[in-house]
Amino acid sequence: MNIPSILVVDDQPDNFDVIETFLSEQDYTLHYAAGGEEAIASLDLLQPDIILLDVMMPGIDGIEVCRRIKAMPQWQPVPIIMVTALNAKKDLAECLAAGADDFMSKPVNAIELRARVNCMLRIKKQYDSLQALLQLREDMVNMIVHDLRNPVTGILLSAEVLRLPNISAERMLRKVEQITISGKQLQSSIDSILLLAKLESGTMVLDYTEVDFCALCMSAITDFKPIASQKTVTLVSKLPAPSSLIKLDATVFRRVLDNLLSNAIKFSPSNSQITLEAEYLEAGHAKVKVADLGPGVPDTLKQSIFEKYEIGTRMQNVSQTGLGLAFCKMAIEAHQGTITVEDNHPRGSIFTVLV
After folding, report:
1. Where are the alpha helices (DSSP H) in the chain?
2. Which of 136, 155, 195, 258 is the most exposed place for a label (fewest CB within 10 A)?
């Protein structure tokens, strides 16, 4: 956690000593500037979270310093508390008009100082959190658009080829297959985003039915084989003989399998193998593992990788939104199950789901 940084601007060092004493029991980093020009010049270096600014200073006074700081876009969010011996209403109004967020009268009272500093830091923290959320939202939108654009581009390019004169029947079938694959990828991405939103908001009610677990796994393998073959990746299944039926939401769980297989294909090198292994457990439960030979997941990310927008190993030309595994985690936990990741020796990852 970052320690809040406070810049005190006052031409009297003794006043800084008083403020430092009053705030000594707080976990702050205090900086001192003896004048307005010095304060403005030090902003980029000190990166203050709050500024305590004296009004009556030689050279440029505090009101002009406040006005200049607030004129700079990068420093507008930083709260400025004017510390002044002036108490006329017009003087206080002038401070606020210059952009000050709060003001205190001299002599400074310790309790009031701590309260106002804490209040302004709380506002600054809320602003920083909002900005981080907005940036995260922008990054997420950009990544989702990138994910959706790829299959759309594939569909459009294949459609253009189909319009060419004298196209061979073999090439036509190949382009139709590519359109089908891109369409399924697009539909899968859209469905996952919608289901994730429902799970997160708590508006989704799972539709439990008795499901042939092996048949569900096999259908996922069958649908993803054409996608895997485009990267010359082989999908291998290790499924037990049909046993008892498992109660789960087949649509949601199938989406989990789709995301795990899609991720495995994304990160698998060419001419490698992905294994989907399933087994029945006692009391109507089951376990499924998806193992790949990709770059693996660092130990430091084995927990956070299931959080929204968290990305494990960034790979060139591989679109990653950090939504797929977040959806898997929420969907499996909604089934009262668990999902984990471990190393696949000598290389790769194994994602294990228990339901």
Report:
1. 13-22, 36-46, 62-70, 89-97, 110-162, 169-201, 213-229, 250-267, 324-334
2. 136
Establish if 349 belongs to a structural domain.
Answer: yes
Flag whether pLDDT at 115 surpasses 90.
Answer: yes
Q: Are residues 196 and 227 in the same domain?
A: no
Range from 115-119, 192-196, 212-216 carrying the lowest mean pLDDT: 192-196
Residue of 74, 67, 21, 17 lying closest to 43 (CA atoms): 74
Residue 274, domain member (yes or no): yes
- Indicate if 329 and 226 belong to the same structural domain: yes
Assign residue 49 the CATH number of its domain: 3.40.50.2300
Residue 59 burial (CB count, 10 A): 12
| More confident position, 88 or 93 | 93
Q: Containing H/E element for 338?
A: strand 338-343
Task: Please give the DSSP secondary-structure letter assigned to residue 3.
Answer: P
CA distance 118 to 269: 53
At 317, the pLDDT band (50, 70, 90 cuts) reads very low
Q: Do residues 248 and 256 make contact, with C-beta atoms less than 8 angstroms apart?
A: no
Residues 168 and 296 in one domain: no
Same domain, residue pair 269 and 302: yes
Q: What would the mean pLDDT of 218-241 be, rounded to a whole number?
A: 90
Q: What's the domain range around 78?
A: 5-108
How far is Cα of residue 226 from the mean position of the Cα atoms in its chain?
31
22 close to 6: Cβ distance less than 8 angstroms? no
Same domain, 302 and 348: yes
Same domain for 103 and 14, yes or no, is yes
What is each CA distance from 11 to 31, 34, 201, in whole angstroms? 13, 4, 54
Same domain, 255 and 340: yes
| Per-residue model confidence as pLDDT tens digits over 120-140 | 999 999 998 888 777 766 766
Q: Is 231 left (phi over 0), alpha (psi -120 to 50) or beta?
A: alpha
Task: Indicate the number of domains in the chain.
Answer: 3
To which residue do tokens 């259908």 refer? 219
